[in-house]
Amino acid sequence: QLSKPRLVLLGAGGEASGGALLDDYVEETNPAISPCGFKKMDEKPYDGEVLTRRVEELQRERDELRKDIEQLCMQQAGPGYVSVATRMLSQRTTALEQDIEILQKKLSGCLRENQNLQEELAEAYRVKSQLADLYGAELSKTKELEQQVRFFQSSVAQAFAERDGSLLECEKAKEREEAGLKMCATFEERTREYQTAMEDQKRLNDALQMELTELKAHTESSLNVIKKFYEVRSRECECPSNITFEEKCSILLDDSADSWSFNLDGETSTSKYIVNLNHFIHER
User: Fold this and answer.
1) Which segments does the entry list as coiled coil (predicted)?
2) Within a domain: residue 73?
3) In the listed set 68, 88, 120, which residue is the last one of a domain according to the structure?
4) Using CA atoms, how far apart are residues 39 and 42, in angstroms rounded to an integer?
C-alpha cells in the first residue's frame, strides 16, 4: 500500500514531476519494485504453484492500488493531481495486466509442460515396467547361466581329474613298456645265447652221432667175431646154443690160453678159422 509520505511527494512535485519523483523514491527505497510500483519479475522459470501465487499476489496488489488511488482522489482535489494519479494508475494497471498475462502464459506453458512431463513420466513408468520385466528375464537367464557355468566348472574339474589320472596311467604304462622292452632285450640276449648253445650242442650231437655210428660198426664187427669164435668153440666141444650174448662172452673169456693154440705151419683148423675170420673182417 502507498503511504502518506508518497502522497506528499506526489502533491508537492506537481503533475509533470510527481510521477518521476514517486518512481525515484520507490526505486531508492525498494530496488526490487519497478517504476510502475510492483516487484520485478524473476526471469527464472517457475512451477505452476509459484506462478499461481504470484498471479494472486499481483491481483491483490492491483486492487490495493485502486483503493489508494481512490483515497488520494478523495483527500487531495485538483486537476493536476488527478491527471497524474490517473496516469500513474493507468500505467500500473497496464503493467500489472501485462504481468498477469505473462504469468498466465507461463502458467499455461507450465501446465502443458506438466502434462508433457506426466505423459513422459507415464512413458518412463511403462519403460521402467518393461525394463523390470527384461531385468527379471535377464536375471533368470543369469541364474541359469550361473548354473551352467557351475556345471561346466564341475565338468572341467572332472575332466582335469580324468586327464591327471590318464597321465598317471600313461606314465605307469610307459614304465611297464620300458620294463617290457628291457625284458624283451634280456629275452633276445638269452635267445641268442640259447641259439649259440643249441648250435654248439648240435655240432656236438653230430660229432657224437658220427662217433656212435663208428662205435656201432665196431660193436657189430666185434659181435660177429665173438659169434664166430663161439661157433668155432661149439664145433670143438659141446656148448649150449640157447644162451645170451653176455654168457657167450663170459664162456669165451673163461677159456684158458691153451684152448686157443696154433701150429707153426698154421695147418690147424683153429688157425685156419682165425685167418678166415681176419680176412672176413678186413673185407667188411
Assistant:
1) 48-75, 100-134
2) yes
3) 120
4) 9
